[in-house]
Design a protein that fits this description.
The chain is built from five helices and eleven strands. A six-stranded mixed β-sheet has the order 2-1-3-7-8-11, sandwiched between helices. A three-stranded antiparallel β-sheet has the order 4-5-6. Helices cover 23% and strands 19% of the residues. Strand 4 and strand 5 (89-91) form a beta hairpin. By secondary structure, the protein is an alpha/beta fold.
Length: 245
Amino acid sequence: MSQPRQSRALLIVNTNFCSSDGDVVFGTRGGAKREAEKLSNVLSRLNYKVKLMHNKTAKEIEDLYRQERCCEHGEYFVSIISSHGEEGVIFGCDSEPVKLTRIFQILSSEKCPVLTKIPKIFFIQACRGREFDQGVVVECDSGEPKTECEPDCFSHYLSIPPQTVVMFACSPGYVAFLNIFGSMFLQALLKVLEGEERHLALNRLMTRINGEVAFHCQARGTYEGCKEMPCFVTNLLQEVFPFSA
């Protein structure tokens, strides 16, 4: 009797960046490598076939997703990207941008029929802008808060292909925090995957991550008190349990 195919996980972590002429453009991302290795180990224990890649250029990142077209896939495809970024973009180690829509296009039904019915789950640890989230007061016995006119942060809402879930470390326009111990977002993901919450349906699992980051994490040092609010977009049509191995 043949064994069922393993689900696959692709982890891409960029820590060192330079331009084509050798100039350093972005800061080194201390803590990201060790964090990614821990995630790789956890996913392996959950019966994923994991590919962990370090410091890939923009072109190499696209090539890695193209290679998935030729692989045998199980029930799920999970991808974790940890890098510098902007809204809708992550950067290769050559400081060149890769649009997330480009990655999704590579794995679309037209380009990759093998993944058409397989849920594709992305966790993206990268900044989506330059604003710092100061947090909000969730309980207050004072007067009504002042109303301010702010731009619609979802005006550039990212469309995703069918059977795809994307979870971002932060809200549009804001920074995502990382230090030598790791990131708020991926540390929360690790905590969930290592505990009993991994058996939850994916949408509930992601909501738990939101709560963990929102209520239990805040920046220290230079950005003391700043917060982070993950968010996710999904167009799945049914509940899935990708980590209940």
